[in-house]
Amino acid sequence: MKISFDLDDTLIAKNKFTLEKINLFHKLFGIERIRKGTIDLFRILKKQKHKIYIYTTSYRSKWRIKWIFYSYGISVDCIINQQKHLRKIKKLDFQCSKFPPMFDIDIHIDDSQGVKMEGEKYGFKTIIISEKDEDWTQTILKSI
Length: 144
Ligand SMILES: [Mg+2]
Hints:
This protein is 36% helix and 14% strand. By secondary structure, it is α/β, with parallel strands linked by helices. It has one domain: Rossmann fold (3-Layer(aba) Sandwich). Strands 3-2-1-4-5 form a 5-stranded parallel beta sheet, with helices on both faces. Strand 2, helix 3 and strand 3 form a beta-alpha-beta unit. The structure holds magnesium ion. The site of magnesium ion (MG) has 7 residues, from loops.
């Protein structure tokens, strides 16, 4: 399956959830910290032959996002940032903050109830993760 992850408040946030440990390299280059559990979760999903996408409404560049994950020793298969989303959705005739089927994504993981509602309205699957969910990786693995 192709599984996409939101970035802000799902995998990246300051002071909302515990974060993966960082090393000197991360400090030196000021690389954004990711949620604790992300590394193991991505490895498990890869082992299960899933493709991992990042689907964010942020304008961070594709390379900046790729580099964040690469610096933690994990790779993602595809990055969809706001620029890419807008370019593609322009061709369809409706408004949606995220529309995973447009990129052949099977399931999208996010923190936003708005995205969940869009999923119900436009017929795509979501898993909504609370920032307070300490067991968030299990929540995802069980749903998948
Ligand atoms: Mg978010």
